[in-house]
Write a structure and sequence with these properties.
This protein is α/β, with parallel strands linked by helices. About 25% of the residues lie in helices and about 25% in strands. α3 packs across α4 and α5 runs parallel beside α6. The protein is globular. The structure holds alpha-L-arabinofuranose.
Amino acid sequence: MVLHVIPGRIIGKRDMAIYGQFLEHFHRQIYGGIYDPGNPLSDADGFREDVIEALKAICTPIIRWPGGCFVSSYHWRDGVGFNRQPSFDKAWRVEDSNAFGTDEFVKFCRKLGAEPYICTNAGTGTMEEMSDWVEYCNLESEGRNARLRIANGSREPFSVHYWSVGNENYGAWELGAKTASEWGTLVAESAKLMRHVDPTIELTAAALSDVDWNISLLRHAGDYLDWISIHEYWDRLAEVNDPADYETVIAMTDNIDHSIKEVRGLLDALGLSGRIKIAFDEWNLRGWHHPKVHRKVQGITKEEYLYPRDLNDDNSTYTTADAVFSACFLNALNRHSDIVRMAAFAPAVNTRGCIFTYDKGIVLRSTYYVFRLYTEKLGDIIIDSWMANPERISVFNRKEGKTHSVDECDLLATAFSDRPGYAIAAVNKNSSKPQSITIDLEAEGTAKLFTIAPGSVDSYNDVDRTEVRIEEKDLGPYRKGMELQLAPHSVSVLQIGV
Ligand code: AHR
């Protein structure tokens, strides 16, 4: 196969925020995850330093918090001040100590050098509570909320720039769910109040690829929004924890960017795509496992609804399949970088995250290395490229019972805004066959190949087990027509003249 790269045709300049992360008060993402006071690996503020270093190494640019479903019954005042009382988290039906709140979140982001992005409670919360949170974070000193922040020890405003009205308020599983007509009005009025507090914030609201929901939202609140948010998990595991096998996951890469195309089309139709951007602010191949809460009939015993959440911690779940899928999705985000300007991997730490913590250290799961590869080695200028007659493979989705035909390889060509050279991301989805790609690109310089090519489709990392890593290979002087060899089930970045 030949990849034709056209350096003169620029698709877009990707925003680093597409490599963002998400953290929710769920299971061990916060408590026992990033926040582990008393652990020797934590700093004086209780944050795990090994986690901070790992998130810094993937250039984490933005973190969305505190949910997710959790936020739809969360009251931010419970998580600030010197006398924090535990509250019952009605979303996930556990006690939250409130030891980790707004101040801790902002401090964590500052240590990382990441932008804080706060999602507000549009479930049981009010528009006043949402805008009071903006007061607490962003006003200099006017009013009781800014004065409360100062009294809590932060004289300077937190300057939280990114805010969301609500989470997935369209979903029956969400506490305080709304109808499409209720939603548009609530978002508009909440956004108005929040903007009266700080007109400089950027606002998003929960959307999805449903036309009626989005039309109502955009008609009522479009004037107040800078973004709309969409979420997607492909391997749904909430009730039954049976992770999809490699071939099924590859079938799930079929039309992987359908949500983006649908929302882009609607924004175009409404004449808003020049102004409103897409935040894909929850995505993961693997849905989270939390049986008997995302449904009308709740589990009764903790064995039914709580203890099974520990199954998310099984590191053997996160294999080569996760890395290959995540690379295909990040390629799609880069291709749509003109309108998708932010994304958040759900979540960053534990549950289905790319980093797993245990009392004596961390495990970097397979997808972590894709973030490492893309944030470190790929360019920010997305250039046009195409393949004549790309080879296709038929793959069976055993969960659907359907066969899909997908491109065998997923390639993305990039350049750099701050230096010469090119970088080409190349995914070989084939489970057994290597692939050779001829690079049709006029360029000079040394060629270097950075590859994630685990031994099998089921390779994974765990404590004292590292099967997934990045290998580096110097290919010598580049020449037009170079043959790029791709191992089976692999993710690579070829750098030319960088
Ligand atoms: O499974 C986790 C949930 O997925 C998040 O809390 C929510 O935003 C999404 O439905």
